[in-house]
Amino acid sequence: MVAKTLFGFEELLAKELRNLGASNVMEGTRNVAFEGDTGFMYKANLCLRTAIKIIKPIHSFPVRDEKDLYRKIYRMDWSDYLTVDETFAIDATVNSENFTHSLYVSQKTKDAIVDKFRETHGKRPDVDVKHPDMRINIHIHDSTCNVSLDSSGSSLHHRGYRTATNIAPINEVLAAGLLLLSGWDGQCNFLDPMCGSGTFLTEAAMIACNIPANINRKGFAFEKWHDFDSELYEKIVDSSLRRTREFHHKITGFDKAPSAVRKALDNIENANLSEYITVTREDFFKTQKETEGPLHICFNPPYGERLDIDMENFYAQIGDTLKQNYPGTNAWLITSNLEALKFVGLRPSRKIKVFNSHLESRLVKYVMYEGSKKAKYNKEV
Ligand SMILES: C[S@@+](CC[C@H](N)C(=O)[O-])C[C@H]1O[C@@H](n2cnc3c(N)ncnc32)[C@H](O)[C@@H]1O
User: Fold this and answer.
1) Residue 372 CB neighbour total at 10 angstroms
2) Which of 256, 266, 325, when mutated, tests ligand 1's pocket best, judged by the most ligand atoms within 8 Å of its CB?
3) How far apart are CA 346 and CA 315, in angstroms?
4) What are the angstrom distances between the C-alpha of 203 and each of 42, 67, 129, 154, 276?
5) pLDDT digits (tens, 9 = 90+) for 212-261
6) 308: pLDDT confidence band, cut at 50, 70 and 90?
């Protein structure tokens, strides 16, 4: 199978897959290939935090041109996967000299499937690009065509805990990946000082308690497959839930906007995580570290989408607040505003290139050591 992911998360995803029990794990570019049985495919969809979707190859063949593609797709027995009453959609990607238009490839594939059904059943299944019963993935690389079924359906960042929002929330897969990159493992207190709709808080609690990432999701595409084994799936859910662990630290969120606090609390309740997370209305710049012992901070501050904030001053205040009020803290932030980042005024001990949607961003780490009055910060050794 192949699990797709975001730029820079391949190593994290490979590690997640190995921990879950996948074999022959191989990192690619924005994807990781692995082997596993049907039960493992269910488990991967349910548990992986950094996968966007999981596709299962069903056929692979050499292909010369569009006519050849049509012929070979037509030859496949599509009634194994689809009925005339079900809907389908095609996702195509091409990386080949002979095929340059992915849209044309998906149209040819669709034509071949539809013509085959007309020929054998006298009727054809309809296309539904938004909510198909079956999503078919075509990948042409040089002169090889791989045909796969999308076992996930909508992207796996749709965890199922988020209610509609007008706040620009961070993608859940991105948030989980950033937390894992930051080394968050639930062994100390956690704070998101600008939590918005609470994505970092929710993902941090799920990591801390080892709760399957997609336990609240409405469903997966494989549940509509003809060979879906509901008993096996229930067993996988039960065994994954048995592997959750206790968490004895605090997870806290601040936001200065009351609407964000309400939204975060709603989402946290939807995820059944209210017992682990506290959210309060605060201006981060007026707060200080409340508890003894190490603190892990991870957040995405505004990056300048609103013109009413003076970004240079805002990022300088982030640096001052961390330095003066948060001793004994490892603080991580992600921003795409690389100019404003310079005004934090602290030397980052790590800088990792990531993408927030299409925006090139940095995940940076600042280490604030315990000090007598003011926190000392320094480059981590
Ligand atoms: C980019 S959003 C964070 C989105 C969040 N990670 C999510 O997934 O929804 C930035 C948030 O910072 C909040 N904010 C801005 N200035 C703040 C301050 N001084 N103290 C606390 N929150 C602040 C905004 O209200 C906004 O909700």
Assistant:
1) 7
2) 256
3) 10
4) 20, 47, 29, 19, 12
5) 999 999 999 999 999 999 999 999 999 999 999 999 999 999 999 999 99
6) low
Residues 6+ away with beta carbon under 8 Å from 104: 66
Contact 253, 272 (CB under 8 A): no
pTM of the model: 0.93
pLDDT tens digits along 317-336: 999 999 999 999 999 999 99
Which protein residue's CA is at the shortest distance from atom 8 of ligand 1?
169
Pocket of ligand 1 (CB under 6 A): 167-170, 193-197, 199-200, 254-257, 260, 283-285, 300-302
What is the secondary structure of 150-177 as a DSSP string? ESS-S-TT--S-PPP-SS-PPPHHHHHH
Q: Which residue, by CA, sits nearest to atom 7 of ligand 1?
A: 169
* Owner of token pair 């480059």: 379
Instruction: Detail the DSSP E strand segments found in the chain.
Output: 2-4, 23-27, 31-35, 53-62, 87-95, 126-127, 134-141, 144-150, 189-192, 251-255, 277-281, 295-299, 329-335, 350-356, 359-369, 376-377
Coil, helix or strand at residue 96: coil
Nearest atom in ligand 1 to the alpha carbon of residue 199 is 8
Nearest to 110 by CA among 78, 141, 63: 78
pLDDT tens sequence across 30-60: 999 999 999 999 999 999 999 999 999 999 9
Kindly state the tokens that stand for 108. 């040819």
Asked if 184 and 204 touch (Cβ cutoff 8 Å), the reply is yes
Residue pLDDT, tens place only, 156-193: 999 999 986 666 799 999 999 999 999 999 999 999 99
Q: Which residue has the higher pLDDT, 37 or 381?
A: 37
